[in-house]
């Protein structure tokens, strides 16, 4: 399988030249092949989220390169980055980041709005995903009326609606109990089967101990990244 | 196209989500537009009424000034003016004011000579003798009189006299005759103790309208203590009275605009943490800065267009169906007799267009600009919330 | 796109309503029997009226076009006005215009 994402000497410094300057990443070399599942472990504040947001084209590195399918995206203008986020990535955020006052259905359609996809097509895609995630009968409910597990599934549905190649999940189990974590793992396994590339940041052993699921395992500490040898 | 409609769809659902807040904005905004548009509609139609109707006013009115005050003019002067080439009839007019201390009302008393045969807006007749009078609707209503009833006026010798009402001006002429009382000219002279051989002013007919200004100059030369007032000046007076730049119109206009600015300013400066977070989420899941701006544009347009259209409709109904009932007290000032406005609509689409531009564009700008500041930042902040 | 459709319908309905009102207004203005302009003009001509009878509180508000130059509202720009209507009415043009001129002693 070809290498899908590769970073070299990646540095990110927040609030540069200010008193609260913070080096979040230093010389990070990360790579993942197409169809693989990678896990970033490490305590909070170690730079996992920073790395995910750089890989996910949400921010630009202070220095270093990010190659995405053999293209350097580190210095692309904002509108190309937005396009990449829209077409290539599906994001599952730690806080879900759903719009609580909107219905479930409206929430999962959000990534599709700035595209030329017609309303009909959107609806059929959404219905399909909702069916897979067993949310079909609740689609007109507002997100704030849903339980934590349901919100998690909505966040996953929103990440999948644009049929992304790469799924980025930041602490996806932080707010889930044991049973819901199991459910998430099942979904992730199914996505892997479908050939998706998945990057998960977590410090939940329930995830990073999944030998069959995980192809590569990284450890982050104070902005440095180490690849953990496969067991 | 699909993209624009999709984003419009989201704009609408996000407006509906904050139903109460947005409804409040629409209400305030609509009221502002309705106020301004009412003023525009009202003044525009009053102006057009004045300019159209007073086109039949005397070509020149000649007054006499004595020590800077309006004084009676010798009727002999009429002869001098009549001899000028281009002048038609010169009619001495006798009129004056009367104050009724009981009802605290001012009237205009006017002397007439003979009754016209067919005056459409008159019910009954002009006073045929010294015992009769003809009234405007405002007076008839204030005193509760109608044709056949009697009206008591106290003359300059302090003796009361009874006049029988022989005619009434009907409501459609209210804007012209509301406070008018017509008496026979001879009776009015007696009433005010006006000396014979003098009149209040002279109404001069000029054959060629283009000569009015020249003749006015000639009259001024021939009679240095006179003040000729040309018809164009009369029309000009009303053109400026109801100009949107004048007086209370401006005050109302300005306060409404300021209210609107406060609303817009509040909107512009008050982008909430929630809104910021939402913009962050949208950007993170693949919205471009342009998409966010388009979303805000739709939001602004949806609100401002709704408010503008509603405001204009309310203003139209208010002014032309309900006689500007809410503005009239502002216009009325201390007038005791005040006409009802049964207005003929006069619509200036250009003004309406300018109003639309002045209210819709700034509001949209106020919606977009603060969002733009948030939308250009990298969306990764949303990851760390 | 249910909301978009509703919104477009709503705006179209409002626009149509406004257009109908404006069109009605324009038609009324063009209709002599509604505006009664001819009748009103006949009245103005017969009585020799010069002003609208709107504010009857003072001479210069009842007959703004006829008021003499020294009534307060025409002493503009700085006059305080007793009557509110005076603030609605714009000052008239000071005609006839008088100007002061001076001659030195001995000058012709």
From TrEMBL, chain A:
Molecular function GO labels: ATP binding; ATP hydrolysis activity; transmembrane transporter activity
InterPro entries xrefs: AAA+_ATPase, ABC_transporter-like_ATP-bd, ABC_transporter-like_CS, ABC_transpr_LolD-like, MacB-like_ATP-bd, P-loop_NTPase
Classification via Gene3D superfamilies: P-loop containing nucleotide triphosphate hydrolases
Domain ABC transporter residues, every copy: 5-231
Organism of derivation: Malonomonas rubra DSM 5091
Coiled-coil residue windows: none
Entry keyword annotation includes Nucleotide-binding: yes
Keywords recorded for this protein, A-Z: ATP-binding, Nucleotide-binding, Transport
Xref: Pfam families: ABC_tran
Recorded superkingdom: Bacteria
The keyword Transport is annotated on this UniProt entry: yes
Official protein name in the record: Putative ABC transport system ATP-binding protein
GO cellular component, one term: plasma membrane
PANTHER family per record: ABC TRANSPORTER ABCH.1 (PTHR24220:SF86), IMPORT ATP-BINDING PROTEIN (PTHR24220)
TrEMBL record, chain B:
Coiled coil spans: none
Keywords: Cell membrane, Lipoprotein, Membrane, Transmembrane, Transmembrane helix
InterPro entries per the UniProt record, alphabetical: ABC3_permease_C (IPR003838), Lipoprotein-release_system (IPR051447), MacB_PCD (IPR025857)
Pfam families named among the record's database cross-references: FtsX (PF02687), MacB_PCD (PF12704)
Gene Ontology BP terms: lipoprotein localization to outer membrane
Annotated MacB-like periplasmic core domain residues: 31-220
Keyword Transmembrane helix: yes
Transmembrane segments: 23-42, 247-265, 301-328, 349-372
Membrane topology of the entry: Multi-pass membrane protein
Chief location bin: membrane
Residues covered by the ABC3 transporter permease C-terminal domain: 252-374
Cellular localization per UniProt: Cell membrane
This protein's GO CC annotations: plasma membrane protein complex
UniProt family annotation: Belongs to the ABC-4 integral membrane protein family. LolC/E subfamily.
Name under which the protein is recorded: ABC-type transport system, involved in lipoprotein release, permease component
Automatic annotation (TrEMBL), chain C:
Region described as Disordered: 87-108
Highest taxon of source: Bacteria
Identification of the protein by name: Uncharacterized protein
Organism: Malonomonas rubra DSM 5091
